[in-house]
Amino acid sequence: MSRSTPHYAWVIAATGALTLFACLGLARFAFGMLLPGMGAGLGLGFDEMGFVSTGNFVGYLAAVAMAPTLIRRFRPRALIASGLLLIALCMLGIGLSRCFAAVLCLYALVGIGSGLANIPVMVLVSHWFRRERRGRAAGMMVMGNGAAIIFSGLLIPVLNRTFGDAGWRSGWLVLGALTLLIAVLAAYLLRNDPADLGLEPLGRREALPAEAVIPREVPGTARVLVTLGVLYLIFGATYMIYGTFFVTTLVVEYGFAEARAGLFWSWVGFFALFSGIAFGALSDRIGRRGGLAAAFAVQTLAYLLAGSGLGTLALLGSVVLYGLAAFAIPSIMAAAIGDYFGLTRAASAFSLVTFFFALGQTVGPGSAGVLATATGTFTTSYLAAAALTALALGLSTLLPRSGALR
């Protein structure tokens, strides 16, 4: 390949961004925009809204448990395309659903598809990029999430104005069709390994390769894996409380018009565009330990402002901070797994910490929905999220330097 030709790794990163745009951005973060209309149309209570979200995470949890075996058997490319196809078909089904049970089952299947697409696409970072590029590459991929938040925040209110009470149905149908298109693109563009195209991973070859395998007997390996898992669990339990219920909070508790609430949610997406790549690059420079601590500090402030009850200005500050750190943790985590555990063990290690993440997501929104039903407000849930991310900040400082286990 000539020096003037971009490395195919950047095609992988761009396609990964599209994959996350669909499997997490549309499948998960658009849910918060669709939830008020769907809840009204189907007569759902706060607790049922939370259970639908929890059903999605239960499906995601099941996919995470299966992922290591499936990645070895089918390879990432086929698994990603299949996951996106499942998401697309289930989104279309939700758009036609008439009851809580149908939505719950279909959205749980969307969670399975999300896990089948998300885990292998993030594992590709370790295959296609060497250590000094991994944070930025993972950050570029998670920009897809921010783009999807902007897209859904602008699109869903337009569909609701156009189709009235059926707006949420048209939203699911449009998102399902778009995900189907992305599934086709992913199947065509993704490649499992640079060697498939006669290439090497992008980045400088190190004297002690980041891809070297950490022997299982090295002291501290298990502790690092558990610490990363707990950090990811806290992230999963907190960020989706905000992602699921923030728009509902604006509409129900603060009396925002849906269009105004959608604009606030779009601002989350705008700032989230820079989240992964900024914190990923920061962690390339200062290390994964410092990057994780910085991201959790910003998230703690965001949740404190959301639960402060100080009005619109505090909510706006919360939106900015949440967006800036929204996807920092996944991008740093993908890079950290490659750094600490090497190429050979990256898939199994990432699947394990993602299991923690999915467990946190399963508990978070459902608990917040039940708590909101009992108290009539989401304030307590946001403050509890702030306490958890403050704990995560402290735990982050216990990690060794990236590569210190080698």
Structure description:
The chain is an all-alpha fold and 406 residues long. The protein is globular. Keywords: Membrane, Transmembrane, Transmembrane helix. InterPro entries: MFS_4 (IPR010645), MFS_dom (IPR020846), MFS_trans_sf (IPR036259). This is Sugar phosphate permease.
Q: Name the CATH class.
A: Mainly Alpha
CATH architecture identity: Up-down Bundle
Number of strands: 0
What is the total number of structural domains? 1
Report the principal-axis shape.
globular
User: Span between N and C termini?
Assistant: 32 Å
> Which residue ranges are poorly predicted, with pLDDT under 50 across at least 5 consecutive positions?
208-219
Please give the share of residues in helix. over 70%
Beta-strand residue fraction: under 5%
Name the average pLDDT. Answer: 82
What is the C-alpha radius of gyration, as a whole number of Å? 20 Å
DSSP helical segment count: 12
User: What is the CATH homology-level superfamily?
Assistant: MFS general substrate transporter like domains
Largest sheet: none
* Class per helix and strand makeup: mainly alpha
